[in-house]
Amino acid sequence: MTPQAPRARILLLGGAGETAAALAAVRGRAGLEVRVLCDGAPPKGVVSDLPEVTPDRAGLTQALRAGGFSHLLDVTHGFAGRISTDAAAACKATGAQYALLRRPAWRPAPGDRWTDVPDMAAASDSIAPFERVFTNVGRALLPALAGFGGQLFVRQTTRHAMPPPRGNIRYVFGSPPFSHDAEVAVLRELAVDAVLFRNTGGTASETKVSAARALGLQMVMLSRPVAPEGTHLPDVAAVARWADSL
């Protein structure tokens, strides 16, 4: 008997923390064929099926065509630069359907001292009046804060021996997940008067926001890039429903 062709071939583009859960939500469903390509090193528990493919517009376009993929599920990090834009463009070029797992953004609560900023230049301006600022923006974005004259505490989730780029920067090491109480303790110990966070959204890392809120700190939130057009899925449960609908 000739094997029945899958009703959908899905290229899962991974990199965010939900990659393994999203893959589990899709893989194993009858009629679906899934292959994985990761932006950078695959997250724990995930194996990239297409390690030779460069996840840019040209590479994704070629991979979609060569694999006969009907859908691309984007599970990359919300601040991963152009990769989502490239993925959506590759889908448009090949006729594949584009879907994006995108956590709901964090929103201010009544009484919050909260400032949304569109980019790092605006973030630098917003933290300028403060003396001690805690941030999770990562080393790659630190050059944009070169003009900040106060003390900057930068969270690092992977321990390393690299020195900070400037004398007013101190790395704060820690391994997620971070509880609300642990985040409160860190912010209180550092005696910060403001925080600068990437608005990654979702519930997994929202404890840093609730901790800053509990301490009444100024919160500066760096907005994510605008999501490409397509099917937007807020969580892994939505991914499972999307897979069932194909």
Automatic annotation (TrEMBL):
<dbReference type="Pfam" id="PF02571">
    <property type="entry name" value="CbiJ"/>
</dbReference>
<keyword id="KW-0560">Oxidoreductase</keyword>
<dbReference type="GO" id="GO:0016994">
    <property type="term" value="F:precorrin-6A reductase activity"/>
</dbReference>
<keyword id="KW-0169">Cobalamin biosynthesis</keyword>
<protein>
    <recommendedName>
        <fullName>Precorrin-6A reductase</fullName>
    </recommendedName>
</protein>
<dbReference type="InterPro" id="IPR003723">
    <property type="entry name" value="Precorrin-6x_reduct"/>
</dbReference>
<comment type="pathway">
    <text>Cofactor biosynthesis; adenosylcobalamin biosynthesis.</text>
</comment>
<dbReference type="GO" id="GO:0009236">
    <property type="term" value="P:cobalamin biosynthetic process"/>
</dbReference>
